[in-house]
Amino acid sequence: MRLTTLILTALIAGCTTNRIPQELHTALRGATTLQLHSLDPAPSDRDRNGPFHGWKDLGYVELSDSAQRTELLDAFDAGIADSDGSAAACFDPRHGLRASYDGKTYDVVICFECMQTIWFVDDVRMPGFLISGSPQTVFDAVLTDASIPLAPSANH
């Protein structure tokens, strides 16, 4: 019953797959610039016109080192592949990716807590996809190493 509820919640939220859309995969892997953002999920900080699709941006790091970029994107891809199709009803994202590719901006807003993502191409929202929580350790380490603050976890 719980799994059915979680799957239905994901479908309602627009997250219908645990596969990364090919267009987004190509853009992330071929990006001329790629940034990892730390987001504050607090509802009081949300603003539809906020700096990162309505969430407060706590800072970002430019991923210019190819080894670091590959490690992060490999973890991201593995997290998508590892998704068992479940998701929670929340959407409290703490991470974002921004890629510039082929004259377009691709943004991914990620909630590892509820295992959902939403993404945008030039500010146009696309159907979301599911992800496991496994990449969060890599994402947090990259941000912490760059002295970018992390939003408190939901467990604090």
Written overview of the protein:
The protein has 156 residues and is α+β, with helices and mostly antiparallel strands. The protein contains four helices and six strands. Strands 2-1-3-4-5-6 form a six-stranded antiparallel beta sheet. The two termini are 29 Å apart.
Radius of gyration: 15 Å
Structural class: alpha+beta
Beta-strand percentage range: 25-35%
Terminus-to-terminus distance: 29 Å
Please outline the major beta sheet: 6 strands, antiparallel
Number of helices: 4
Task: Compute the average pLDDT.
Answer: 87
How are the SSEs ordered, and which strands pair?
Layout: H1 2-13, H2 22-30, E1 33-40, E2 56-62, H3 66-82, E3 95-101, E4 104-111, E5 116-121, E6 124-130, H4 136-145
Antiparallel strand pairs: 1-2, 1-3, 3-4, 4-5, 5-6
What is shown here, in short?
By secondary structure, the protein is of the alpha+beta class.
